[in-house]
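Lay summary. Proteins are chains of building blocks that fold into shapes, and those shapes determine what they do. In this project we predict the shape from the chain. Here is one chain we studied, written as its sequence of building blocks.
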Amino acid sequence: MAEVKIKMRRRMTFVLLVALLGFFAVIVKLAGVQLIQGSELKLEAEEVRTRDLGVAASRGTIYDRNGNKLAVSITADSIAALPKVVKDSEEAEATAKFLAEKLGLEYADVYEKLQSDSTYVWIQRKVDFDTAQIIKEAALKAEEKNSGLLAGIEIEEESQRYYPRNTLACHVLGYAGIDNQGLDGVELALDTTLKGTDGRVIGQYDSAGNPILQAEYDYIPPENGYDVYLTIDENIQYFCERELAALQSSEFPAKQAGIIIMDPKTGNILAMASSNSYDPNEYGDYPESSRRNFLVSDSYEPGSTFKIITASTALEEGTVDPAVSSYYDPGSVSVANARIHCWASVPHGTQTFAEAIKNSCNPAFVAIGQSIEAKEKGLFYKYIQAFGFGSTTGVDLPGEASGILQAESNVNAVELATISIGQGIAVTPLQLITAVCAVANDGALLRPQIVSKVMDGDALILETQPEEVRRVISPSTAQQLREFLVGVVTEGSGGNAAISGHTIGGKTGTAQKASGGSYAERKYVASFVGMVPAEDPELVCLVVVDEPSGVFYGSQVAAPIFKAVMSDVLRYMGIAPSETADDGLENEEEIIVQVPNLVNLDVDTAVGKLRSLGLTAEVVGEGLLVSSQTPSAGSTLYSGNTVALHTGGVVESAGTTQVTVPNLHGKRFAEVADLLSALGLTMSAEGNGVAYSQSPTAGAVLESGSIIKVSFSDEENTVIPIIP
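And here is the predicted shape, written in a compact code that computers can read:
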């Protein structure tokens, strides 16, 4: 018995020792984990359950100079996934199939993302609203049924760039990419100013991706970008784009065409339009050639518009005396071994300096260029460079070219002669109008400005001021040359640019295009540059038409476009005609119409109002109501001109709750309901079918929320009265 007790004690002692050793081993292990690996494991645990999410800053709004929105940031839904949660749900295949179908993606691509080892993946960024709603509703239904379908799928709100005017000023604005980064135009040039600083949300989540409510969250708010006000005027921009569209839809379209309008006293660019337009909202749908701003990025031989520079230099340096200098044109002139012809089929014969400018005579300007070089070698080149040719203007737009100006050491007598008439030198349209603005601004060359001011809410961050680069010619020379340029419009090749009641100084240009070391047959650049009023210019406009397909002279192609655009711009700017203006025209009787306020009207009523005034309408968008118009109410146009009606956006009521009752005559029940709802009015309906009477009548101005009584009839023979 004693032996049994001894054996039992030994066994118990052994078991106890083993247990103590095991416990000691656990203690040692725990101590090692806690003391040696504790910090590392704690960090890993935090990384597993912590998610650091970026909060995108909203890009600043881009306005025109009058505060009209040209680029805004809106929210858009993006579809993301937590792959671990999706795989644990056992519905990965069904989820991938559903998303691929709704998003228009390949099943294999979606499934591969859902099987990723990443903690968070994007399925598709910035999907349309309707698609996002379908996915949201499907996820809610699946959750109600305790289904694993769409488990781990998240819909994130992101900021997206939206351009409410679609193609308007597209080459100036540029566009922003999927991550809200500026990729072209002002969006790229001022990306740092516009984009702001992203914020962050640092939170903790469990293994199913659900937030741990008791955990601490760190929120670093984003700093939104600054707002940018451009020098561009939405209405002036529209006038330009309208005429370019008319050119391209005519019987003789061009390869491309563009218009720039500047204020010569400030350097502000009021409009910069190109015919090859695109919609920045869908920039990926357009070729790169459509997105290229050739007015800034491309060089061309300016032709006779460059004679303004030649004439300026000669007048400033006194190598011509307008009172006594004369030039003989036999039809061509020989320089070294080259013969330079005049554009005219009949030689101009003997001419004064003023007549040489008016006639745009090539032999005369070759002689004028030679007179400059005869006074001092390199003198003409000094002025060419002083006017800004051969270097960029410094405008706040990307991709600006410097033009092509040969090294002075390589220029011989022939090349100097051709440069005098605007061939053998390549300039950008922006360079040329900037140089002409110096003549309009009494000889002071200003840097062209595209940005007016930068704002942070109501706080002014930056306001641009006129920036003089240098003085090129004296005020007296500039004034004298402007008087000669008036003769080009009143008596010379620029007659098609004349506008009744306004004194315009200008110059036409027609230059053959170079190709492969020689000039291409039947390929020209036609242009016209003009300033108004010539005695003290407030506006300078350049029209460039690249490879017109019909007539190709600047006087026939570009000058009429100048007239059409500037006629509306002058009225819009309030630059009144003068009875004493030297316009070179007989008295013209043209009907001038004031544009009515069409905002909040239904499209049919707005179009009818314009037609009754002799104006035409261009409806932009597919909405029921006019949300904005271009030009704005109160502007004046010639009868027959076009007003753009923008629809489909949020209707702005200018701070009031008053709305204009639309004409409901002939509209179906659903159409009337949608229209009144969009206006904030309430419908009281009687009958079904087509509306045949309403109270109050169309045109009445009511408070938002008012009741409109509408009678409908579905009888085909119902007599529908005319509603005023």
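What the prediction tells us: The first strand starts at residue 50 and ends at 55.
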